[in-house]
Write a structure and sequence with these properties.
Layout (H helix, E strand, L loop, with lengths): L1 E2 L2 H9 L2 H11 L5 H8 L3 H13 L3 E4 L9 E4 L1 H4 L2 H14 L9 E4 L4 E2 L2 E5 L11 E5 L5 E2 L24 H4 L2 H11 L5 H8 L3 H13 L3 E7 L4 E6 L1 H4 L2 H15 L7 E5 L4 E2 L2 E5 L11 E4 L4
Antiparallel strand pairs: 1-8, 2-3, 4-5, 4-14, 6-13, 7-11, 9-10, 11-12
Helix pairs in contact: 1-8, 1-12, 6-12, 8-9
């Protein structure tokens, strides 16, 4: 059993690299199957499977009423549009820490002020930006326990595409459910193998592999606390700390669509202003809340 978590439920759908690349491609303007295949580099059968999952989850809709019955179009539902803040936080992390050259030509523009968009998480109460150290959390009314079960899926594979991408590197963490759950655990102060295992529900072999990957990616660092045999605490690097806003925004989306009837499992407080923290994404230049309709993308291939 693990603690009830909206992130866990959200990751049952979104903790999958193909799904994240499909959603990114739709935000970048791809609407038809052939366009999605070209942009993502995902094989036809896998792409069809993941599109079906997104439709079943209520994140995408399939429109056959466009006069092109043989070529249906895919679009985001309101539930899908509500993932926009999570996408923006992935974009921020990617611009700072990503290494993929194909993303460099893409840029978001905030049409409300005419500047290149620099998204910043802000407190919805005081409208000030915040860091992880300024966030406290306590158990909420929806906390409980649930079985550590999960759906089976194919192993992640590499995708080949020369199309520009906003998120190709940053989805490697969120697109692997176990890595994202490990990050959730470390964000909440769990640093040792056994406590991370209990919090995430990951089997020892899976946990060992993912921790090794996160350390090699410089998202986590190790500090030995025992010799013979050597055992480690796991702590966030600066690169890892900067990923907190992605997990936070995913949690809020999960609370909205997969939360318990009693309320959210976790209550956040912005310690600087003392108010409950409901993060928003604002433009650094004009301080306005960023909405999907106010953002355009430049640098796309025709």
């Amino acid at each position: 059993m693990i603690k009830t978590c909206s992130i866990w439920r959200a990751l049952e759908i979104l903790g999958d690299t193909p799904i994240l690349l499909i959603l990114e491609s739709i935000w970048l303007g791809a609407t038809r199957f052939t366009q999605l295949k070209q942009r993502t580099g995902i094989q036809k059968a896998l792409l069809s499977n993941r599109l079906g999952r997104l439709i079943e989850a209520g994140i995408l809709r399939k429109d056959r009423n466009s006069g092109l019955a043989k070529h249906p179009q895919y679009g985001l539902t309101a539930k899908g549009v509500d993932l926009f803040p999570t996408v923006l936080t992935l974009y921020v992390w990617e611009r700072k820490w990503g290494t993929a050259d194909i993303r460099r030509n893409l840029e978001l523009r905030h049409e409300s002020c005419g500047s290149a968009l620099k998204p910043v998480p802000v407190c919805g109460a005081c409208k000030q930006s915040f860091e992880l150290r300024e966030v406290s959390f306590v158990e909420g009314p929806g906390v409980g326990e649930m079985p550590a079960s999960y759906s089976r899926r194919r192993n992640q594979v590499s995708f080949r595409s020369d199309q520009p991408s906003l998120l190709r590197g940053s989805v490697e963490i969120l697109g692997d459910r176990w890595s994202a759950l490990i990050m959730r655990a470390v964000f909440t102060g769990l640093n040792r193998f056994d406590t991370i295992a209990a919090d995430s529900g990951a089997a020892p072999a899976i946990l060992s592999e993912r921790l090794k990957d996160l350390v090699e990616s410089d998202v986590l660092k190790t500090v030995p606390y025992q010799q013979n045999p050597i055992r480690y605490d796991y702590f966030l690097t600066k690169k890892g700390v900067d990923y907190y806003s992605v997990i936070m925004m995913l949690m809020l989306w999960g609370d909205k669509y997969y939360g318990a009837p009693e309320g959210p499992p976790v209550l956040l407080t912005h310690t600087t202003c003392g108010k409950p923290l409901v993060p928003e994404i604002a433009c650094r230049d004009c301080q306005q809340t960023v909405h999907p309709q106010s953002v355009t993308i430049t640098g796309l291939k025709n």
